[in-house]
Amino acid sequence: MIEQPETGGYPWHAPPPRRDLLALTRPEIQGRRAGFVTRMLANVVDAGVVIGVLLGAYTTISIVKFLWAPQAFHFLAPNFAFVLIIGGAVEFVYLTAAWRIWGRTWGDQLLGLRVISFRGTHLRWAGATVRAALCVTIPIGLVWVLVSRENRSAQDVVLRTSVVYDWPRRDQVTS
Questions:
Q1: Terminal CA-to-CA distance of the chain, rounded, Å?
Q2: How far apart are CA 175 and CA 166, in angstroms?
Q3: Coil, helix or strand at residue 8
Q4: CB 87 within 8 A of CB 54
Q5: Is there a contact between 61 and 71 (Cβ–Cβ < 8 Å)?
Q6: Long-range Cβ contacts of 115-122 (<8 Å, 24+ apart)
Q7: Which residues make Cβ contacts (< 8 Å) with residue 120, sequence separation at least 6?
Q8: DSSP character at residue 150
Q9: pLDDT for 4-47, tens place per residue?
Q10: pLDDT tens per residue across span 66-82
């Protein structure tokens, strides 16, 4: 005969215990400046967003071109410099708008980061614009985080900004 567990039912009938693993670690690092690895991963996600936008635009242009003249259709072959310039422009607009409006990009959101001014608030349009321009033109500035005791990139030092861990509060998280 099989004995029943002390709970009176089979284990698969009882709901699993609720664990909020993020709540265990959040208070310890909430508001601290983010390190190199976290920021780099957020940048990789953001680069994926920009590449997705570029691929979407290329696909849309190709479809329109095909529908306009199917017999004369051929895929566009832009040169590398053109793609870099357009990609940089898309990244610039994306970073500027995201940092000004939400204080974070999609990569930052995914990794629980926020870009703040020296006042601890969202960047203003001017600050977001200059920071985005510096990040697009001098991306190697992120490496300064590795030698900075305050985990600040070269762009953060110049503009007095910070990238901090900032997850939603418990009352903002839906169950």
A1: 39
A2: 19
A3: coil
A4: yes
A5: no
A6: 115/161, 115/162, 115/163, 116/161, 116/162, 116/163, 116/164, 117/160, 117/161, 118/160, 118/161, 118/162
A7: none
A8: T
A9: 455 555 555 555 555 554 454 555 667 789 999 999 999 999 99
A10: 999 989 888 989 999 99
What pTM, to 2 d.p., does this model score?
Answer: 0.78
Per the structure block, which two tokens stand in for 7? Answer: 């709970």
- For 146-156, letters b (16+ CB in 10 Å) and e give eeeeebbbbbb
- Give the containing element (helix H, strand E) for 28: helix 21-29
The distance of Cα 127 from the centroid of its chain, to the nearest Å, equals: 18
- Interacting residues of 44 by C-beta distance below 8 A, sequence separation 6+: 107
Rg over alpha carbons for the chain, rounded to the nearest Å, is 23
Q: Residues with Cβ < 8 Å from 75, sequence gap 6 or more?
A: 62
**HEC-encoded secondary structure of 33-100:** ECCHHHHHHHHHHHHHHHHHHHHHHHHHHHHHHHHHCCCCCCCCCCCHHHHHHHHHHHHHHHHHHHHH
The tokens 């939400």 sit on which residue?
Answer: 102
From CA 164, how far away is CA 114, in angstroms rounded? 5
